[in-house]
User: Fold Beta-ketoacyl-[acyl-carrier-protein] synthase III from Candidatus Accumulibacter phosphatis.
Amino acid sequence: MFSRITGTGSFLPGPPVSNDDLVHRGIETNDDWIVSRTGIRCRHLADQGETSSDLGLEASRRALNAAGLEASDLDLIIVATSTPDFIFPSTACLLQAKLGNHGATAFDVQAVCSGFVYALAIADKFLRSGSHRRALVVGAEVFSHILDWNDRATCVLFGDGAGAVVLETSDQPGILATALHADGAHHAILSVPGGVSGGRVTGDPFLRMDGQAVFKFAVRVLAEVGEECCQAAGIASSDIDWLIPHQANIRILEATARRMKMPMDKLVVTVDRHGNTSAASVPLALDEAIRDRRMQAGQKIMLEGVGGGFTWGAVLFEF
Ligand code: UT7
Assistant:
């Protein structure tokens, strides 16, 4: 038994916000610096009151529509997010209520920018075990809500959005291999080191990052986990038709492609228009490449995530 992606959807809030728009909002930066260091030209930013479950709802409706299913058909809902609506209940339960599903298994996965890859690999294991048949897997984030807009080294990098896939059991492949890893020893290089206690915010509620340490770590593990996933499926990296790494920075994508000996035209790139949308970046890019018909039936596609924790992972599937 395999699990297969049968529908995808995505959603971006509001109009694109360009690098120059950020300058006009008073951030001490410029388009040249952002484009040359990151490849980012614009991003979408949610309103203050717009939540991850709101964005996830739009993406999920589109994915269900593409799969030809109703929300009531789902028996599993997993939301990958590091910007949940509440401490609890989970964003997955809030999304479930908005969709009008009653009774499906629903929970969040917290693996930061690897979250969607983690969630998809987990859903694959549920479906292959025979316990569940139709899953909705969502990556939804409002990182703009946890950015320190006075820290130009981080606030220009991120954007908001959501992507979703419907995964169903099938006797045809399907997801071919998955690999998930973490090493908490590196927790301090990318974190939001705050919490809530006694009715007050404790620690620091904003995203903090050692950019250069993250850069080096990401490039190494994305290449390694890609190779591991290929070996698990018994294929060479040259057999991959499309690679969708987490969209953090064009220089990370280029370095990963070089290490995996893949031409850049096999990569799906959205970081220029979306910025880094954390757990939403991979399903947003996947939905774009499926809807513009770049991806054809029978092709092999690899998804890769890397993010805070540190966490990293990959999912290889046949479309
Ligand atoms: O999901 C994972 C998320 N994280 C990432 O993807 C981050 C990976 N890291 C990176 O992409 C890069 O490290 C950054 C793009 C974040 C930074 O690039 P860098 O080449 O490592 O720059 P830097 O931090 O060493 O800063 C270089 C200079 C500094 O000025 P001085 O000290 O050399 O005068 C910064 O103050 O760039 C300055 N700078 C900026 N200038 C204009 C930092 N941010 C900005 C900015 N605009 N937004």
Q: What stands out?
A: Residues 29, 33-34, 37-38, 113, 152-153, 156, 209, 211-212, 214-215, 248-249, 252, 276, 307 surround oxa(dethia)-CoA (CB under 6 Å). The chain is about 35% helix and 25% strand.
